[in-house]
Design brief:
The complex is a heterodimer of chains A (487) and B (122). Chain A is of the alpha+beta class and 487 residues long. Chain A has 13 helices and 14 strands. In chain A, strands 7, 8, 9, 10, 11, 12, 13 and 14 form an 8-stranded mixed beta sheet that branches. In chain A, a hairpin with a 3-residue loop joins strand 13 (460-470) and strand 14 (474-484). In chain A, helix 2 runs antiparallel to helix 3 (103-114). Chain B has one domain (4-120): Transcription Regulator spoIIAA (2-Layer Sandwich). In chain B, 39% of the residues lie in helices and 31% in strands. Chain B has helices at residues 35-51, 67-85, 99-109, and strands spanning 4-6, 14-18, 23-30, 56-65, 90-96, 116-120. In chain B, helix 1 packs parallel to helix 2. Chains A and B meet through strand 2, strand 3 and helix 6 of A and helix 2 and helix 3 of B.
């Protein structure tokens, strides 16, 4: 029956009321006529009542239907609302979990966000340890408090962990005693309380099992269907979070190792640099700079010819006697060291090259390894300075000590040969002649060859010694250098 | 207060508490039926020793502990940390015989403001 039907009924009722009013107010009608009119009216009313009852019945049915639909809608609305809340919650937890890099923080984020929705007494995360083939539960939350743990379930024995990982499926029990009587004792031992309900979820990331997320409660029937669905959804997020945390941990460890290695390399490099500097200094101590550079760049044998160079030999006269008198080798070496250190300083100040010392004899040269014009002059000045040192040496060790100096200028070969204990050395007749000048000289004098004299005769004062017999050389006209001509 | 010595059982560790020297030792496996009850004498001893302002050396020599024992250990460490912050002299020695126990020690102690040593008992 439609709305128009109910409207018809109302108008019919109105019509009947009008008719009854007319009958009651009619003055011309007989009693019989009034009676018949009322009988008709009653009949019409009874039809009207029947129709009204029908209408009411249909209306009731419709109302019930509507009520039912409304109730269904209400339930659906509640479900949708709950689902929406779960989705919001999961999304919120997901954000926290996937942005956390510590498993402890992940567990705390889960606990703090789900406690209004589901009661959890113990929440723990177990990681697969391949070395011991077990699941280690090291991260545990009990009533919201983080506790370090050392629970371990071997995958070689029968327990919840091995069951979950073997079958790769979750285990939910709202009555542990009934469902897993064999495991209960061990679970109680691990947790320290009477565990009645459990929800264990395998955690998978990139199709690989990364661990187990476990919930425990001391009450039976703790986990309802919608809560389980929620926990399952959450476990998926946690797997990603755990994967991230593990990757971060590995990365941090690797980073730490790398930093350690880098530090070691840096220390080694510093050490190497120091050693390099030391060996470089050492090299420069025994070799002229340009020669050292050539050796470093790969030259194996160096032998350079110089058309003109000056060689000086200085010998300590009376040193052998002195060494017997002094007796103490240490003191003797100290005296020698002082004298030769002074000679080193003189050589360096005239830019001359110290070649070597041979016992108590000091050898230097000018005009090598870099050729020069004034090498003879510089050598002459150095020889004079050496004699100047004599008085200080005599003050220190006694008047019996003296110097004998020989000089010669000529062609020379200078270089480095050999692979071990190599030195920059000189070869050629010039070296022999200079040495002879020293050995045939006189204590406290500078004995020079004619070639040397020829080069410096205009700048220095010489005394002609005349011709002398020089061992291995024959007769030679030689000179004593006395000083510099003051211009 | 007298020296306390609790013998080791299958489920609970040996406990030595010396009030005169401030020396405490918990040694063995810990998964007693009621951890709170088991560790109560330790907590009481600790509170008294702190009250007496004694120097404390606390030695953990555990091979295994369950979750409820973990909570008790954390509570004990909490008391020691507070005592240390108040100026009390405390040293905690955590003995370990495997990597798991070493990690547990690090997990317990690294965040606490407390002097401690991780000592290998191997």
């Amino acid at each position: 029956m439609s709305t128009s039907d109910s409207e018809n009924l109302f108008s019919k009722e109105k019509e009947l009321i009008e008719q009854s009013k007319k009958i009651l107010h009619s003055k011309n009608s007989t009693l019989e006529e009034i009676k018949n009119s009322f009988l008709n009216l009653i009949e019409d009313y009874s039809h009207l009542v029947k129709d009204t009852q029908k209408l009411a019945k249909i209306s009731d049915q419709n109302q019930n239907k509507l009520k039912k639909i409304q109730e269904e809608l209400l339930v659906n609305n509640l479900i949708l609302k709950e689902k929406n809340q779960n989705l919001t919650l999961i999304s919120q937890i997901g954000k926290l979990v996937t942005s956390s890099l510590e498993i402890r923080d992940i567990l705390l984020a889960i606990y703090q966000n789900i406690q209004d929705f589901i009661k959890i007494e113990l929440l723990m995360f177990g990681q697969i340890d391949e070395t011991s083939n077990s699941v280690k539960f090291k991260n545990i939350l009990v009533k919201g408090e983080y506790l370090p743990g050392m629970l371990k379930e071997s995958l070689n024995t029968e327990n919840l962990s091995s069951l979950i990982l073997t079958e790769q499926k979750e285990i939910i029990s709202n009555n542990l005693e009934l469902d897993f009587p064999n495991f209960k004792k061990n679970i109680d031992k691990q947790s320290g309380f009477d565990v009645q309900s459990i929800a264990y979820f395998p955690l998978k990331s990139h199709a690989e099992l990364v661990g187990i997320l476990a919930f425990q409660n001391s009450e039976k029937d703790s986990f309802r269907e919608h809560q389980i669905n929620f926990l399952r959804d959450m476990a998926n997020f946690i797997a990603i979070g755990v994967d991230n945390a593990n990757a971060y941990k590995k990365l941090s460890k690797r980073n730490k190792e790398l930093r350690g290695t880098l530090e070691e390399i840096r220390n080694l490099n510093e050490g190497l640099e120091i050693e390099k500097q030391k060996s470089e200094n050492l090299l420069l101590n025994i070799l002229p700079y340009s020669i050292a550079e050539r050796l470093k760049s790969g030259e194996n044998t160096i032998a350079d010819f110089f058309e003109s160079a000056t060689v000086l030999f200085a010998d300590i006269v009376g040193f052998s006697k002195l060494s017997v008198e002094i007796g103490s080798p240490k003191k003797l070496v100290t005296i020698l060291n002082n004298i030769f250190s002074n000679f080193d300083f003189i050589a360096s100040s005239y830019n001359l090259e110290k070649i070597k010392t041979i016992g108590d004899c000091y050898m230097l040269a000018g005009g090598i390894p870099e050729p020069s014009e004034d090498h003879a002059e510089r050598c002459a000045l150095a020889a004079m300075d050496m004699l100047e040192q004599l008085k200080y040496v005599q003050e220190e060790v006694g008047t019996q000590v003296n110097f004998r100096i020989g000089l010669h200028t000529g062609a020379i070969v200078a270089g480095v040969i050999g692979k071990k204990k190599f030195v920059y050395d000189l070869w050629g007749d010039t070296v022999n002649t200079a040495s002879r000048m020293e050995s045939h000289g006189i204590a406290g004098k500078i004995h020079c060859s004619h070639a040397f004299y020829e080069l410096l005769k205009d700048k220095f004062i010489f005394e002609n010694r005349g011709e002398i017999e020089v061992k291995g050389k024959g007769i030679m006209n030689t000179y004593f250098l006395l000083g510099k001509i003051n211009i | 207060m007298e020296r306390i010595h609790i013998n080791k059982t299958k489920v609970s560790p040996e406990v030595i508490l010396d009030p005169n020297t401030g020396y405490a030792e918990i040694c063995g496996e810990s998964y007693p039926e009621n951890s709170l009850n088991f560790y109560r004498p330790v907590v009481d001893w600790l509170k008294k020793t702190v009250e007496d302002k004694r120097e404390i050396e606390f030695n953990f020599k555990l091979d295994y502990f369950n979750t409820s024992s973990s909570k008790c250990i954390l509570d004990i460490l909490g008391i020691l940390e507070k005592y240390n912050q108040e100026g009390g002299k405390v040293i905690v020695n955590w003995y370990y015989n495997d990597d798991d126990m070493l990690e547990a020690g690090e997990d317990f102690l690294s965040d606490l403001n407390l002097p401690y040593k991780l000592i290998s008992s191997q």
